[in-house]
Design brief:
The protein is mainly α. It contains seven helices and no strands. It is elongated, with a radius of gyration of 25 Å. It holds the Pfam family HTH_21.
Length: about 140
């Protein structure tokens, strides 16, 4: 009778240990991916977290990953759907980058917007500024006061 109870205790303790090991492996994999991202940028957004979940989804359950990352599952799936859509601003991004490079980084968002208008693309200045921030480009000269 005691051997049965000892055997069942071993089974009960081994299951949480295995689950705990998987949890630790998942956390380690996440932290390595996070470290890679942190080297490229300073703060991590939900979109970055969703990319990490997407990369690790074949190794670990999505529910466990999103729970560990503190993002709702619906947010993950919405971001996943958003990432699969084609970029509607791709041609504008290329155009902004070429204008910026042609003028050797001296043009800010206002002059780039004017140049886009000359080239036949009427784009709002806020959109140009947002795209420039996404591309990580900034005018090298300061605005006159």
């Amino acid at each position: 009778m005691t051997s049965k109870s000892n055997n069942s205790k071993k089974q009960r303790t081994s299951v949480p240990l295995i689950a705990n090991k998987k949890q630790q492996d998942m956390e380690n994999d996440y932290l390595t991916k996070l470290e890679l991202l942190m080297s490229k940028q300073e703060n991590i957004t939900n979109q970055d977290k969703a990319k990490i979940v997407y990369e690790l989804r074949k190794q670990y359950p999505v529910t466990a990953l999103v729970k560990y990352l503190n993002i709702p599952r619906s947010t993950y799936y919405n971001l996943l759907k958003q990432m699969s859509r084609p970029d509607k601003d791709a041609d504008i991004k290329v155009e902004i980058q070429t204008i910026f490079d042609e003028h050797e980084g001296r043009y800010g968002y206002r002059r780039i917007r004017e140049e886009l208008a000359k080239r036949g693309q009427n784009v709002n200045h806020k959109k140009v500024l947002r795209i420039m921030r996404i591309l990580g480009i900034k005018s090298s000269s300061n605005r006159k006061k």
